[in-house]
Amino acid sequence: MTPQATLSLPLLRPRLRRRMGVTARGIAGVLLLLAVWQISVPLVGLGPYFYPAPSDVWLAFVDLVRKGILPVYLADSVMRYLVGLVAGAGLGIAFGVLIGMSRKASLALSPLFKFMFAIVEVAWIPIFVVWFGYGIETIVLALIYVVFFPVLYNTLLGVRTAPQILVNAVRSLGATRFQVLRLVILPAALPGIITGLRLGAGFAFRGLVFAEMVAAKTGIGYLIFEGAQAQQTSRTIVGMIVMGLLWLAIDQFYLRPIERATIQRWGLTVDAAERG
Amino acid sequence: MLRLPAAATAFVLVALCAYWLAGLVGAHDKLAALEPPPTARADYRITLAFAPERFHQVLLQEKGRLVEVRGNTVFMKDVDPRALRSIARNYWVESIARWSGK
Predict the structure, then answer these.
(1) Residues of B engaging A, defined by a Cβ cutoff of 8 Å
(2) Which residue from A16, A220, B11, B88 has the highest number of Cβ atoms inside 10 Å of its Cβ?
(3) In this predicted complex, what is the ipTM?
């Protein structure tokens, strides 16, 4: 064992132990819920259509995988989600920077965006269906709409709270507008952008389920809807569980580490992100 | 710092590659039984491991003309070789055989 490893082990152990403890408590909570659910089924005495047992849901899951339905629906949902998230975030950041840096753009666009912000995506989906039909275009547009506003307003906040002293300092050194943007504004706005992204990612996830229920013939949202329509409640619950697990994975493996990295990079406290 | 997202992405990519490769090998095995090998549009009898649902019928309909469903078997006309290979890649397709079309 190297001296470095010897030194880092005592530091690592309590942290690892704490993390394992948190995971174990989480798993215990889920197992308890499943046990209560399974026990309650004969007590409630309703059929699987009204109140399926966890075992029914498990069988439905196995059936959906065996028949190749779940992998295709999952892939479709993830693909739509990623396209909507990336496009919505890109537009949100671009317009946030534009409005934050240009008074003319702010005067021209702010009222329009405030007006649009009030119209929820649910209201747009029927119009998108009329214009683009049932399919990926409608869903992606709905997701772009959902992601756009939180990213826009958080980027705007970040741009407007960039330290003026730094902007002036860089300008006095002869920096162009683009250099000011690259060297001061964007780094200062990054925590805001990340916050907007995290919010947008969450909203987009909820938007995805709704959009797929209304405007798709595949996807996890459609599975939830189709299951209920076809009186296959177990399938609906499988869809709900997959949706929840997918969100947990996205949050745990992508959003949280990216947020933590940004917070640490820009010298803000890391406790909130660690605790979150 | 961003090791976790990178590792998660790598894991997903490896899983997707494995899935794709498994599909490719499976398709090769299922089509190997066809004599002569498919080179032009033809009619096929596609057997699944279960009775096809709407999902499977819609998917198959995109690859050719679905004529009939009998039990676990789907009868299809005018399937071109490329579409046949993509059908065979699905793990839920058990076997593929030529069909006289009657």
Answers:
(1) 1-5, 7-8, 19, 49-50, 53, 55-56, 58-59, 90-92
(2) A220
(3) 0.89
